[in-house]
Amino acid sequence: MSVRRHVIIGGGVAAASAAATLRSHDFDGEIVIVSDDHTLPYERPPLSKEYLGHDGDGRPTLVKPENWYAEHQVTVRLNTRATRIDPGAKRIELSSSEKLEYTKLLLATGVRARSLPHVTSDRVLTLRSLSDATRIRQLLAKVDTVAILGGGFIGCEAASTAISMGKRVTIVERSSTLMEAALGATLGGVMTDVHRAAGVHVMTGCVVHNIEQTPTSLVVRTDRRVIEADLVLVGAGSQPNIDLAEEAGLRTNGGIVTDEYSRTSAVDIYAAGDVASILHPFYGAHLRVEHHDTAMHHGASAAKNMLDLNEPFSESHWFWSDQYTHNLQQAGRSEPGDEVIVRGSLDDLDFSAFSLRGARITKVISLNRPRDVLATRRLLFSEHQASPDQLKDESTPLNRLVPRERPNRVEA
User: What is the dihedral of CA 210, 215, 217, 218, to 10 degrees?
Assistant: First the structure.
């Protein structure tokens, strides 16, 4: 192959970000995005929020305008699936039976939603792709009752949207609170109360046994009681799309394993976004993160390393969620032994909960306090010293926490 060709497999924000970064850093070879989606890369966060509702025109928010790809000579092969990677020949095979050689390859294959086994109803749906969201949007406009199985972020955001549309909503969650895996039981309890106050019937500590479709409704049988609904949305988490990498012999471990430069175990093959388990240089551990902001920056970082710029990816993992009138944000990473300090009031739904290890902040979760998160993100990997009293004291600006000494690596 005389012309350099960088190929990106995947059609999400990491893929689009990588393509844009390659061009902005003067890569003058071919760029080809291979995506099994039918739409150009789009923003996923709105799919569980405003896109589901009555507002808007039903069109996705594209990561880049449609004409950007032609203007920057980026070829996008939609409705095309990569079926095989040959790392030795530096070639991929496509569902169209074509073969495509690459100079360097980026795997940004993302994740897929977990579905319920043995359930085939067209009214029991998962939410991951634009096609999923479009189908749910169409049904939501027609139904009265919605059962959501799983009280994680997707389930809670969809419940918020459905309530705003006047639907009767039930969330069934196995844990003791909503979003407990991400927020812990105390803050998860706060969000559980938020949903109940908005009118959602929340069933926590509840296990689903089966779902039966009748001519008029869906019947969800749990260990507590039977729920009837017109539509069931399953929010049971996701699993990384690592099949292609595994078949090619790449190292995987709950994701495609990479070093801090996004390099996989195969020469000239990189991975980024939700599917990648990257060695984080600050934490000294492999992490796989499924958040939009991380995927966007990770795609850009991987692209730079495809250009041999050798920049490690060391983002602090920030995400947000909008539910009703509330904005929830989190940044950083904590361990079970970290002390939790609350600034503000849980009762007033106006707080930041800091995780503190020694004198260092390791994580913040804020409700309706985006400025606290912004200030904390600047501290996480920088020199700072914080005490519980300082963090509780509203009069102590977070951006003025006194530098003390260079940070030591946080042991995973």
Answer: 10
